[in-house]
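Service request form, structural biology core

Requester: graduate student, group of Dr. S.
Request type: structure prediction, single chain
Budget code: on file
Notes: please return the result as structure tokens.

Sequence provided:
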Amino acid sequence: MLALSLYGVFLILDMRAIHGQIEDEKIRESLGERPYIIMIGEVEDHAYWNLVRDGGKAYAEAHHMYLHYMGPENPNPNDQRDLLRQAIDIKPDGLIVQGISDTFIPLINEAIARGIPVVTVDSDQPDSDRISYVGTDNYAMGQAMARDVLSHVETIKAGVITGSETNDHHQLRLAGIESVLNESDQAEILSVAVSNIKRVNAREKTYQMLRDYPEINVLVGVSALDVIGMTEAMDVLGREDIYVVGFDTLKENLELLAKGRVDTLVSQQPYEMGMRSMDVIRTILDGHDVPEMIHTESRLVRDVTQ
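Core staff response, request fulfilled:
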């Protein structure tokens, strides 16, 4: 019975794969001469990644290209890597991928060896054969966040919520924060917790952190939804005495900034990342050289009018 059940599962998976292949072939046939590009993001549906996708699709539409966006249902580097494997086998004209882990390097290198240009976006793997990276200088922005805290809080007892303990861009941001705060006599990081880029996790981890370390007077959010979860936990505990700094000027984050619930946000340009990564792919396909690093604009925002 177990063997039959497993056979049924594998049969379903095989049929899905065949269906996906057929659908891909139909897409390729309908495109004619239009380049077929695949973008693999951190997750299928997420406020930040939707902007990256939309920027890429807008560029594709304006330049007679086709962009197929893919991402796992939930953040999972293994699932993301599986999508990259599938994408390479499809043999698109170009690949744009978030290089969140060095486990992606062999697949990136394989794609390049098979003649598929690869551009990393949002998070880089510089030791791979990828042609170019488009996105924020994550380490530098982590340092900028920490310097902002130092300039506004006299004695710092900090808690940090990071999106992932494995994704390279989150680790670069955290390393930038630590490099500044750990060198200061007025600062101490009391706790670091992981939200897995989910609002509810950020809320739960922040709540527990503030219960364990009530002396915390600074909260730093490393990924886009951390700020929302952090302020929700502060509300439950009645904490209004905490300096809050976080990543990304999403609508809800800006509303919190306008209300004075958040003190500083890092403004990235996800829409521009999507557009510029597509522009890099197009330039490569046209036979031209491209820069190895393209850092999109990022800055600190303390006022919604900035």
